[in-house]
Amino acid sequence: MSKPRSTVPADVPVQLLHGDVALSGRPVLREVDLTVNRGEFVALMGANGSGKSTLVRTLVGLNPLSTGRLELFGRSLSGFHDWSRIGYVPQRSTATGGVPASVWEVVASGRLTHRKLLRPLRSADRAAIRAALDVVGMGAYAHRGVAQLSGGQHQRVLIARALAGRPELLLLDEPTAGVDLPNQQALAGALRRLKDDGATIVLVAHELGPLAPLVDRAVVMRDGRKAYDGPPLTDADVHAQGFDAGHVHCDTGLGTAGSTSAASAAVPTPLKEL
Amino acid sequence: MTLFELFSVPFMQRALIAAFLVGIAAPAVGTYIVQRRLALMGDGIGHVAVTGVAIGLWTQTSPTWTAVIVAIAGAVVIEIVRERGHAEGDVALAMLFYGGLAGGVFVTGLAGTGASRLQEFLFGSILTISVNDLLVTMALSVVLIVICVGLSPQLFAVSQDPDYAKVAGLPVRFYSILVAVLAALSVVIAMRTVGLLLVSALMVVPVAIVQQLTRSFRMTLLGAMGAGLAASVGGLVLAAALSRTGANVQPGPSIVLVALAGFFLVWPIGAWLRRRRALVAPFPETSPEEKPVDEAHPHHHGEKCGHVAVEHGDHVDYIHDGHRHAAHVGAEGEHYDEH
């Protein structure tokens, strides 16, 4: 089980102990323990509103813990400054900036963790940007405006931005939402190459689709708590065990597994496109 | 006096230098303001700065420096209210703007200075700029330009995607407040040129002009600086030329009108470019069903049919009356699906 705090080795990318998170006063995560080991590919799954996105945002420090302790690579969050080891792919937002930006520029901001102030891009930076674009298959689009891209292409650009920093730990928030199958397959190919290179990957997904073969371990969230943590589940398992059952209050006793096939049918994988 | 002679007069030369630098610096800051979708922030700071100017007039100190202090304070408050993202935030900001303008006029009254003195700051008075004012303007403009260009990778990342920037370890809050402070400084240096009530135009309109044409942030930033320079100097020359005919045109409004004219000149080109790009843009992921066309197609699309060919996945579409035709060989022979 969870190790004593003082002995968390520096090569454990993520360790969250008894994490509680409240957003505008409303508790969203309750007593979540999560350890991600080096080289693991962990899928965070669960229904909309189950807290999986909140959890991944918490792991990168965007949501403060109200209680509990988070360590990244063996350092507590407040003492962690080695952000170049972490790559974060936020949920794709349709809101871009009010000014045009090219694919190259967006991906180049992924090198900021390696750049000093007031210095131009070095050739190593350029090589990393080009390599990241090639991994996601967007090399030919470097000088397009991001506003011209389709949803799946935009998602791949955001992944390239995270890859450009050459992270050891990559956290992706719903990278497959609203992305068509060919783009999901391209994404799966890119993640497989990273995994083969030894990267640790934490991925939030509603449905795994083509990513399923990559997953080493599944964590299913329900109502802000960890409902399952173990070997990979198929999408069908997640539904069948009732993990995907919309909004069920645990304390009513109605949310037990098996009672919710109708409820899960009523939840039509609403992709967060808005 | 010819136009050339007019520009050999010292006050006109000072005006030209000020217009030149402010024309570059204000749009540089404006690019970040527009990127953050805060195009009206400059207006707000301009209103608040009126109080700063009035305090300077009242206390008989330099209105420029009191305006700097009050504008920075106002800009930081605006940024904090924005960051909190409260629903009542815009009402709070509106009250701040009204308070700034009303306070300025009120304090000017207390000072007993006539409204004409305040008007110099409200609508600009580039022709009365003193050597001292010019030096301050030059120094601040250079600082603004250096920061906006030098820190552009950081400022771009923070404005484009604050969450990502935070995970990249950037001090997002510091950079956000820095942009607000830069906006306040550009309001103050531009107040002698275009005036506090029109200052936002010089920050925003050049950006609006060039982003019709550009696809990258860098080109937008540099282009806006060029467009701002052209509008600023062009407007000053226009006002000077008109003043020779006996009219009394202030440079501030003419600079803004020249910038707006530039926008309307470029807009049709931008509309044409957007149309072209829309035709080669990828399809939305959830593409609507393809509708086969029933009517007989008068010709076969091919290399020589004159319709624009667009690659689409494994086949080529032809643009025909604003939509795409994809050749499709079915049991009944070749026909075209409309996309």
Automatic annotation (TrEMBL), chain A:
Family annotation (Pfam families): ABC_tran
Domain of life: Bacteria
Assigned EC number: 3.6.3.-
PANTHER family linked: IRON TRANSPORT SYSTEM ATP-BINDING PROTEIN HI_0361-RELATED, METAL TRANSPORT SYSTEM ATP-BINDING PROTEIN TM_0124-RELATED
A GO MF term: ATP binding
Record SMART domains: AAA (SM00382)
Matches recorded under Gene3D superfamilies: P-loop containing nucleotide triphosphate hydrolases
InterPro entries the record matches: AAA+_ATPase, ABC_transporter-like_ATP-bd, Metal_Ion_Import_ABC, P-loop_NTPase
Enzyme class, UniProt record, top EC level: hydrolase
Annotated family: Belongs to the ABC transporter superfamily.
Protein name, per record: Zinc transport system ATP-binding protein
Positions of the ABC transporter domain: 14-248
TrEMBL record, chain B:
Gene Ontology BP, a term: response to zinc ion
Pfam families tied to this protein: ABC-3 (PF00950)
Keyword terms: Membrane, Transmembrane, Transmembrane helix, Transport
Location of the protein in the cell: Cell membrane; Membrane
Membrane topology per record: Multi-pass membrane protein
InterPro entries given in the database record: ABC_BtuC-like (IPR037294), ABC_TroCD (IPR001626)
CDD domains named in the record: TM_ABC_iron-siderophores_like (cd06550)
Keyword flag Transmembrane helix: yes
Domain of life assignment: Bacteria
Predominant subcellular localization, coarse grouping: membrane
GO cellular component terms given for this protein: ATP-binding cassette (ABC) transporter complex
Similarity comment: family membership: Belongs to the ABC-3 integral membrane protein family.
Protein name as it appears in the record: Zinc transport system permease protein
Annotated source species: Nocardioides albus
Lineage, uppermost ranks: Bacteria, Bacillati, Actinomycetota, Actinomycetes, Propionibacteriales
